[in-house]
Amino acid sequence: MKKSIFIIILIVSFISVRFGLIELYKSHDAPIIALLPAILGIILTVMFNCQITMTGTSFGYIMSFILAQLFKTEYIDPKRGNALYSNWFVLWLVIYSGIIVVCFVMDCYRNKKKKC
Questions:
Q1: Residues near 71 by Cβ (< 8 Å), separated by ≥ 6?
Q2: For 59-82, what is each residue's pLDDT tens digit?
Q3: Which helix or strand (DSSP H or E) is residue 27 part of?
Q4: 92 and 30 in contact (C-beta within 8 Å)?
Q5: What tens digit of pLDDT does each residue of 78-97 get?
Q6: pTM, whole model, 2 decimals?
Q7: Contacts of 44 (CB under 8 A, 6+ apart)
Q8: Fewer Cβ in 10 A, N or C end of the chain?
């Protein structure tokens, strides 16, 4: 598949999360900050010609968001006026970055095997 299709998938995922699923997280900055690992994935793809990394970068954005929503933990901090806190954003970034790293390692292994 062409890289432009994967970039379109990433853009659609971003728009879906940013505007369509805002009721799940109520943070306007989170989808934009989560694009930082996506930029890293795209740079790795361009520099090293990594097809698996591009796939993981584009589909991993929405998949990691869903996984973070499924496994999030919410708690109330009585020391800070009973404020509600959640770990979903950290989960989202860690899962998404992990997907990109695993895909990049797979690409490196595949490219090393091809050269031999």
A1: 91
A2: 999 999 999 989 988 888 777 777
A3: none
A4: yes
A5: 777 776 777 888 999 999 99
A6: 0.84
A7: 50, 53, 100, 104
A8: C
Tokens of residue 82, six digits:
């009973």
Report the candidate in 19, 33, 97 with the shortest Cα–Cα distance to residue 63.
97
Reduced to 3 states, what is the DSSP secondary structure of residue 48? helix
CA distance linking residue 110 with residue 43, whole number of Å:
18
Q: Hey, which residues does 76 pair with through a beta bridge?
A: 84
CA-based nearest residue to 102, from 44, 47, 56 = 56
| Alpha carbon distance 107, 54 (integer Å) | 10
> Positive or negative, the Cα torsion across 106, 109, 112, 113?
negative
> Which amino acid is it at 49?
N
Enter the tokens of residue 103: 């895909």
